[in-house]
Write a structure and sequence with these properties.
Structural class: alpha+beta
CATH class of the largest domain: Alpha Beta
Largest sheet: 9 strands, mixed
Strand order of the largest sheet: 1-6-5-4-7-3-2-8-9
Shape: elongated
CATH topology of the largest domain: Heat Shock Protein 90
Radius of gyration: 36 Å
Helix content: 25-40%
Number of strands: 25
Number of helices: 17
Distance between the termini: 116 Å
Length: 633
Amino acid sequence: MLQAEQGQIQIHTENIFPIIKKAVYSGHEVFLRELVSNGVDAISKRRMAAMAGDCAEGSEGQIRIRIDREAKTLTISDNGIGMTADEVKRYINQVAFSSAEDFLEKYKQENDAIIGHFGLGFYSSFMVAKQVELVTLSARDGSEAVRWSCDGSPNFSLEGAERSEPGTDVVLHLMEEELEYIEPARIRTLITTYCDFMPVEVQLEGETVNKREAPWRKSPRDLTDDDYIELYRYLYPFQGDPLLWVHLNTDYPYNLQGILYFPKASGRADWEKGEIKLYCNQVFVSDSIKEVVPRYLLPLRGVIDSPDIPLNVSRSALQTDRRVRSIGGFVAKKVGDRFKDLHRDDPKRYAEIWESLAPFIKIGAMEDDKFADQVSDLVLFGTTASAADGESPDPIPGADGKAYTTLGGYRSRLDAANDKRILYCTDEAGQAGALALWTGQGAEVLLADTFIDTQFIPWLEYRHNELKFQRVDSELDASLQEKDTDLSDADGKDSSDKVRDLFKTALGNDKVTIQVQALKGEQSPAALILLPEQMRRINDMGALMEQRLPGLPEHHVLLVNRRHPLVEGLLKLSAGSVITGSGSSPSQQLADDLSRHIYEMARLAVGGLEPNQLAGFQQRSCDLMGRLMERGI
């Protein structure tokens, strides 16, 4: 029979900080995770010890949680291996030792079944309890039940107790300020958060709360598409269905399982913290794993479960080391492999979901050279070309009638003289005039993204330094110009010179370069704003650094279409005007105002008029139309 005794808990100096009850854990609620985890450990230990013939196997493992409102206690019970008095002294009193580590030394071959790493989780109970009682009975033959009690100070009591079945009860006498934990709804939420996928049944007041089954621990062969989608809907309710998923499973050089999902594109992706849930042997640890996966994969969703990711003593923060970086590389490679498989096996499906995949692939390629090598041939662009028929693999038909192509596919359709020039458009509305000019002459244009491609296209040029990416509104070549004769007058000026002088005088802005050309096509505009490629890129990069939309640079080119009827009429109007001693004639003033109007319309087409300028533009337009009507024009 155990003799009652008093004593002091032995604390090694170097381990004093981990048991300061208010400082170990970032949040008090994790006490339940730690105590339930300890119970699951105890059940695993009993099963392993029974297999070795050291104790009776017992009934199926179970964690029971009971609430006593009157006594203000919360009890967490397990039917695991329990402890003898000597084990309580060693594992509870001598905080420097870890029962999990000691047990694993004996049963090394089964070590993946043990959750505990530190032997300190039990002390998290003192964050919410003013007194903790532990009643335990070892499953080994001939053991006696013992009761251990402590009020959070180094003082404890240890005495004999009554318990008929092996296992352990942890009774928490809650502090007044922690009475939220006697509310069943609060405990249920904590079980669902931290213990939902633990392999042991967790009961609250007789009702099983947790799901127990962790699909990511199964083989992909044993899961259907519906199984994957069901897990996603459970973890992320009301978020729709995922686009695709990646099942992770490796046991060398580290143990890791998981399922990662690609969500549909939305404006709420978290590129800093992420939404992937980190588990350690099916115990929820954190939903912030920016130290584990590369930044470009953080907006993925799903689960990563590994006992080999190093955590701090409270399991609340990750410790970055070579192993963590290796895990990040493994995850990135598996994601890249998934992209390659989908692109090869189902290119139409790949094209349909490309807009949601593009940020991951493009940002990942720019940030990770190894990932870039995997996905460089998988990058798609929208194209003005029609989708290929069934006999040709490119362009690929996508969603909503769009067609997509790879950079290689695009180049294969260029003639030899232009196969180094990549024409692209980032805004089909804002660059509509220039886009129509190119496509009207049969040129194929890539449709790029307004934001990401501001950085991605220069990166592509760096990777393919033989190529030149040219936005449709950066310059126009001879193929878009009419080959006609522009005769000079007696002063040696042709019509192009006259149009240039007219606009230069009307605008009075040296920062606007005036170019005059005769453009092909009946639908060609009266004027276009051209932005030289390098100048525009500098402007776009400055806007990106300042986190604003790129506006129209002060220095830009106004290309006037000499063959447009409006410009031809403007020349005739200007030719009939005279300069009087009191200033410009009404015709000259009207010509100047028309020139400014043509310029402002070109600016409006590229979003170059600020909101506070639109009202003035509208007023001037109405006034100009009125004056034209008065003249019968």
